[in-house]
User: Fold this.
Amino acid sequence: MNTPVRSAAVLLAAAAVFACASCGKRESAAAGSAEPSIEELAARADALEKEAREAVARAIEAREALKRAQAARPADPAPGRAPAAEPREAGDPLAALLADAVADDPVDEGRKPADAAETAALERQRAVAKTVARNPYRGAIAVDAETGRVLFQDGADVPCLPASMVKMMDLLLVLEAVERGELRESDEVAVSARAAKTGGSQVFLDPRESFTLENMLYALIVQSANDAAVAVAEHAAGSCEAMVARMNARAAELGMRDTRFHSVHGLPANVPAGQLNDVSTPRDMAILARELCRHPGAFKYTSCDYHVFRPGPKPPKFELRTHNPVLQRETRIAGADGLKTGFTNTAGYSLAASVVRNGRRAIVVTMGTGVADKKGAIDGPSSKTVRNKTVSRLVDEAFSK
Assistant:
């Protein structure tokens, strides 16, 4: 079953589960009346799809709250005992359809059950550890972009902190909205005070400014600008919180079963205060990368290594230069056209690379690369070198298969 059909099946099933009451009212009102028009049917389908997406997002948040509560229990399970299965209502049709929708995806080949205990440990560890990264990585995977065939995997289901790799989901949702006609790349995106105050990598947005959505997407991907991520989220969804709900709902549709988004930018936990870490796995990031590659418009941004965000001289010219090593002159990989890096001091260095050779596209994801210095913190130059060499090796290995 292809992805659009699977997504439609999931959304319709979710609508049936979560919107049955309203659906029944509509059907009762329609009894004895003329058959609804195409416009009425389309409006009904849109309403049900919206309810389904919102319901999936609420379900994900509820499941996450349950996991946090379980992780906070004072006593751990007895040594060697597997964690108890999460309670699930008998005959839950949405859960069954979500599982069926991804069961035939080749990227799921070799997927291990999600390790809830390690995910919870990751959340606890980040508060005290200088880094959770490893040498050469926490996990990695390489897949054929067209077929989803797994070409290499090592720790593909290990929970990781994706950092700015979450911006791939921002880009995907915006491009899908553009394709549906809900947004245009020529839209003017206003800058809120919240966006302007967002730290980390940024393009120093000012609330008095506005930029086209296209320009903001260049800032989002090329510069990995966190302030642009907030501005884009507010424009596309109305708020960061609404955008995060959409991100989680789309992740569920795609079968990213071990991913939980809490931000639109990937900044560390408690930035802003109270925020939890985003958590994902190399396998899930490969699923997201594959879906992004199905949208040709993505490569305008992901393959760009230089863009002028603000022309000079007033305000001063601001240039964007890619952080992605597969696009940089010194470390460029032949055929590379993206996709996204991620880094925080806790998460380490991560990268989703897309490379085309001889008409084939391979996706390589490595997450959590870190070489620790004597104080236990990440040695930046050494870690980047390990990440770059590892990705280059895995790309060659992928194409050799």
